[in-house]
Task: structure prediction
Amino acid sequence: MPMLPRADFNGIGLLIHNSIATLGLLEVYTPDPICFDLEAVQFLQNVVEMLAIAIERKQAESLLQTQSQILEQVASGTELCEVFTGLCLQLEEQAPGSLCSIMLLNETGTRMEAIAAPNMPDDWRSAMEEINLLEEPIGACALALREGSAVLSEDVAEDETWGRLQEFALVRGVRSLWATPFFSQAGDILGVFAIAHTVPCGPTMFHQQLIRAATHLATLAAQSRHTEEQLKRQALYDPLTGLLNRTYFMTQLRQRLETPENLFAVLFLDVDHFKLVNDSLGHNAGDQLLIQMAQRLRPCIRKTDIFARLGGDEFSILLDGVKTVQQAQTIADQIKAVLSLPFQIEDRQVFASVSVGIAHSDNLYEHPEDILRDADIAMYQAKSQGRSQSATFDKTMHDMIMSRLQTETELRRVVEQLFLDGSSQLRLYYQPIISLTTGRIVGFEALIRWMHPERGIVSPMEFIPVAEETGLIVPIGQWIVQEACEQLQYWQHKLEMPELVVSVNVSGRQFVQSDFLPTIRQILSFTGLPPACLKLEITESVLMETAAKVMDRLEQLREMGIQLSLDDFGTGYSSLSYLHRFPINTLKIDRSFINILTPEQDQVVKAIVALAHGLKMDAVAEGIETQEQLNQLRDLGCEFGQGYLFSPPVPSDQAEHLLLNQPKWVK
Ligand code: C2E
Ligand code: MG
Ligand code: MG
Result:
């Protein structure tokens, strides 16, 4: 109750307030001085209380109204900038004399973006946006963002934290500024809400309420936009590498094809031997490699091009405005060069390369899937030429793929038939392996042939890769071992040649099958062939690609008494330092070394023979075609030989004939 003076007055003023803050002032004037008695004052006091309630209700109502308006805008997907500007304007209306603004923190946390500052001086935005938050956090907004807590600058003129911006703010009439940061649900700073005044002052309770409401709304709006963007990103981006994804890439391809006058090229990239990285170093390392490759390639690709990860170890690049295949080829070369340096994955250096397929839009494509398919076909072609190659799609590749598909379909049928009634277009041919010292046949290499009703004899070089890729090699391989063992057992008995050995080629896919060993064991017991008369030929790539598992398996084979031979030695990339650890009996010197063998050029073969002997293995020379080669190999100490000089691979009856007649091959 105010103290009552005893004199008469013309007027009286009463503060309008609630329990915590002053809301306004009620002034009552009379024409003649009167004495405001207790009753009059009590009356006015009641009026003031009612006014306080009305004001509070009005403020709360308009705040609620603001809130629901903003929430509606957020829900309807209104641009964030518009939502925030509306919020500032409404708050300014509720707190007369205030200038509101909202800044958002950029992704790197180094700068702020003045997304809404409707009544701040024109150059305010740019001045705020130029501030580097890490190097020079000047002014209340920057400080609040940096500290993550509210900064109340109640008198800018007295506040040194404004630094060089102090003068700038004062000249533009900003005398006080209260900045409050707002956060995401995860606790990350999203931005700052600021209220400025043209007079020095601090926030009242009402202001504080306003700030709380404003930051809450700003959080909701920014967070929902953030979530929306994340969803959009998820729909269009690859989460691992951050590159665009297949969906987006296909949409872009479709758009380009709608305007055929725009020439472009598509590069299809596939990481060479990626499985090897995954299998040997783990999936985490594989992921790291993909991320680093994407990072390294990104700067080589123009902003206008589309760089996407299609999935797995496949990437694709849409090169806009590329008029000739030559241009695309140059870019492919640059990509290969950039990837040629090693990658640091965990604590190792890893070398990686890609095979690149190129398809150009001048082939007049209708559907995006078609151009991507052709780039993919070209990539396969590149892969077949070795690591880090590129190839451009042309029509012959398409024909090749079609014929490969045809081969696959037919081969499936052949295998079905094989297990249905045992009849088959598959045959085993036998090529004799000769002792270079005695000239006698010591065994045969079993080599498969496909007796195709229309195409004649199809080479294994053509269909074995298809069988490997499709997994058909597993049933085919099983049949080969069975057939070869039966045949050999038959000869051993019929011709009384118990020492004869049969060599059977085993592909990698076959070798790693979990039932490989039991199957071999079963075949041996079924046919009764002594294990020592079966020799399995594996290639260096089998040793390398599955090094961990392979050792175990080789040792078990050795324990069973089966012999092992390393085929095409010298053409793969086996690590010589590992060779001694594998229980191998024989090195087969690849034909390419025998081809070039002359008395002057014998170093490589000499070294391989010495290596074999050093490791307590024997050596077989493949592809002997001339008497000179034979003589020289014998002089170099190579124990065995195989080649057209003796005999090409022949059907079993002819092989039997050779066994019976033992030609005088070595004089
Ligand atoms: P490989 O195991 O290195 O077989 C040797 C190849 O060299 C055979 O080709 C053989 O006919 C050929 N050859 C033998 N002597 C000479 C010669 O003096 N000169 C020339 N130019 N070539 C000679 P083929 O039968 O066409 O087999 C090719 C490859 O296909 C084999 O190479 C092997 O990797 C694979 N292969 C053949 N049969 C089978 C099989 O039953 N299973 C599996 N997994 N692969 C097989
Ligand atoms: Mg072989
Ligand atoms: Mg070979």
In short: The first strand starts at residue 9 and ends at 17. The longest helix spans residues 38-75.
